[in-house]
Amino acid sequence: MMFSRKGKLKKEFDDKLIHLIKETKDDWNNAKVIEGLLDDYDLDVIARRKIAESIHFYLFKEARIRKILIK
Is the dihedral of CA 18, 63, 49, 47 positive or negative? Predict the structure, then answer.
């Protein structure tokens, strides 16, 4: 009985991590689209894209460490 709570918490946090990964992937894709639509060179937009990309890959790496399958 004691171990079921640990499994439940792990599943809950794994689900949150998967949700965050999907959310950051959308943010990253949106930033890439915005960057592609700009005519001029905007450092702020490029920085936002790189930040979104970094966050996404950090979360993806964490999922790999936790051995979570992302569908």
Answer: positive
53, with CB counted inside 10 A (0-12, 13-18, 19+), is middle
End-to-end CA distance of the chain: 30
Separation of alpha carbons 44 and 27, rounded Å: 15
pTM: 0.80
27: tokens are 């943010």
Our separate counts of H helices and E strands in the chain read 2, 0
Token representation of residue 58: 């950090």
32, 24 contact by CB (below 8 A)? no
Which residues of the chain are modeled with pLDDT < 70? 1-4
